[in-house]
Amino acid sequence: MKNYFASWFLLFGFLFLISNQVQARSISPSESIALADQQTEALQSPITDSVHPAEPEHEAAHGHAPAWLVIPFVALLLMIATGPLFYEHFWHHNYPKIAVSLAATVVLYYLFVLHNVHNPVHALAEYVQFIALLASLFIASGGILIEVDKKSTALANVTLLVVGAVISNLIGTTGASMLLIRPFIRLNKDNIQPYHIIFFIFMVSNIGGSLTPIGDPPLFLGFLKGVPFFWTLTHNWPAWVLALTILAILFYLIDRRFGGTKGTAELDEEVSYSNKISLSGTKNFLWLLVIIISVFLDPNVLDWVPAIHYDGQKFSFIRESIMFAVAYFSFRFADKKALTGNEFNFEPIREVAFIFIGIFGTMMPALELVGTFAQSEEGAAMITYNSLYWGTGLLSGFLDNAPTYLNFLAAAMASQGADINVIQQVKDFALNNYLDSSFELMAISIASVFFGAMTYIGNGPNFMVKSIAEQSGIKMPSFFGYILRFSIPILLPILFITWLVFFAFAG
User: Fold this and answer.
1) Packing angle, helices 364-374 and 347-362, rounded to 10
2) How many domains is the chain partitioned into structurally?
3) Of 33, 259, 297, 399, which one is least surrounded by beta carbons within 10 A?
């Protein structure tokens, strides 16, 4: 893991070092003169440019990906889907090489064929932010042992899932998932089944975190762009209540039918339960608090926070440094009893780190093509509540939901003449100062979070929960099995009902 992170920080530095040379080759002399004229005009009219920065001309310097460059991304998705099912041994031993190789193929094409450093640098920065948060929450929560001395019942299980959904809004879906998945498995150790884990992913790892920017990465990115902190709570709670209520009722009915201990009725009568909850490693809650606080140390929100200035933007590094430090120290000084009780190891975060470096590296062309079309005249004309909900949702299930959220928010704002890079305009968009803009943002927000549960790769915690469950001996469904057996028959109808209730007849 240490060499792995070091290699990517070296690549990050490499991209910065060669960026000036690549951009110099990609801009012709006439374009350089034009850019110089634009800079002169900017100095003469600072007020206008502060509201509408000259982004199109700057973006023209970056080469755009051809459609065929999405092939590595599609190939990676297919291998994630088929590898554990048809060639498990090969996939388990080679997925890091495959993911990194496919990502490197796309990155090198951007750098040396398109002369585009912009997209790889942004993808790498987003990946470092992503893995810093997940790794720190995973390791810090791994040092907290929750023991529930209670008989496994449908009511106990559904209560834990609902509580987990609420906690997701306080420590994020990743934090809540890592804190509760092991106690949930232990509670059902006599008859743990795949549906237990799938409903956990639905309720705790995704839909639960819809109420605060801390809850899920797309909402946090929206907050950084200018969406007010409590906007998600005031606008998303009705859909949150509806979806979780249906899921809770379905889980309760299924667990009443198939859950509980099987063939151990006599043993259950002999065993007495104290119904107490005991905690070990409680000092790690302080580490979780440090992570939560550090989340807000973003230079785009707080001007005094140091940043890396590149390509007209500010990249955070203080926040990520704190998170990586927490990851190290929370493990170094963790309660050994808690680590042992949780059977803690680094394999789940290792798997997520490699799989998502492949996803972040290869999905650049796909996001670029979607974003370009969505912000074109033809794409903007298609923007409605329905297209925003289903478009954001379906892509969030197969692309990472955080960049998908930003792409559709940018498209929705552009269709009304607003700029996602201007914080005040984002705030105005959220506060409905454009035509039905608050409702459009609601469609994007709910879809990006809810649909993140459609596949294992829709949201970071999904893969981690799957990996922990498999290490506990639970035979989880394959990528397609997850979709066909659970997402389509259970989750998709709930997403359809949510659309029907809140968006289908709007306007």
Assistant:
1) 50
2) 1
3) 33
On whether the CB atoms of residues 281 and 143 are closer than 8 A, the answer is: yes
- Average pLDDT for residues 233-246, to the nearest whole number? 97
Mapping DSSP onto H, E and C, the string for 264-313 reads CHHHHHHCCCCCEEEEECCCHHHHHHHHHHHCCCCCCCCCCCCEEEECCE
Whether 507 is in a domain gets the answer no
- Please check whether residue 49 lies inside any domain of the structure: no
User: What are 2-45's pLDDT values in tens digits?
Assistant: 444 444 444 444 344 434 443 444 444 344 334 334 443 433 34
The answer to whether position 297 is within a domain reads yes
pTM attached to this predicted model: 0.75
- pLDDT tens for residues 448-507? 999 999 999 888 789 889 989 998 899 999 888 999 999 999 999 999 999 999 998 875
DSSP secondary-structure letter at 263?
S
Radius of gyration (Cα) for the chain, nearest Å? 23
Among the listed residues 126, 196, 197, 184, the one whose alpha carbon sits nearest the alpha carbon of residue 360: 126
**179 lies in a domain?**
yes
Note down the domain range covering 250.
2-24+60-261+280-500
Helix/strand/coil for 147: strand
Residue 302, pLDDT score: 83
Where residue 269 falls among pLDDT bands split at 50, 70, 90?
Answer: low
Mutual orientation of helices 437-450 and 492-502 as an angle, nearest 10°?
Answer: 170
Instruction: Tell whether the torsion through CA atoms of 178, 180, 181 and 186 is positive or negative.
Output: positive
Question: Rounded to whole angstroms, how far apart are CA atoms 454 and 427?
Answer: 29
